[in-house]
Amino acid sequence: MAQSMAELLQQDMECEGLLECIHGLKQLDKECFRVLVESDEPLTIDEVAEAVDRERSTAYRSIQRLLESGFIQKEQINYDQGGYYHVYYPMDPTQIATEMQRTLNDWYAKLGQLIHEFEDKYEGADEVRTAVDG
Hints:
The protein is mainly alpha-helical. The chain contains 6 helices and 2 strands. Helices cover 66% and strands 10% of the residues. Strands 1-2 form a two-stranded antiparallel ribbon.
C-alpha cells in the first residue's frame, strides 16, 4: 500500500532507502547492489546469485531492475575460443547521486505545478461559497 508523504518523512531512512523511494527498487535489488559495490571486480549473475543466496533467475531480475535504473553497468567479456559472458559493476556514486537529484528536482517541479493547479481550482470555489453565504 502506498504511504503518504507525511508518513515517508517521519520514517527513519538510510541512504539506501533512496533506491527504493526514488526508483521503486526492492530489498533484493538493494542487496544485489551492495554486493556489486563491495566487490573488487565486476561479477557475473551466478556470482551475485550466490552472494545473495538466491536462484540465478531471481538475481537476474534484480540485476535487470538495477540496469534499467542506471545503478549498474553491464560489460561483455569474450572468450578467446568464441562465445561470451556478461559481468556487472556499479556506476560511479556521483553519477547516481546526480541522477537522483535530477529526478527529485523534476518531481519537486511537478508537485509545485500540481499545488498551483489545486489552488487555482479551489480558490474560485471559496469565492462562490462566500457569495452564496453573504
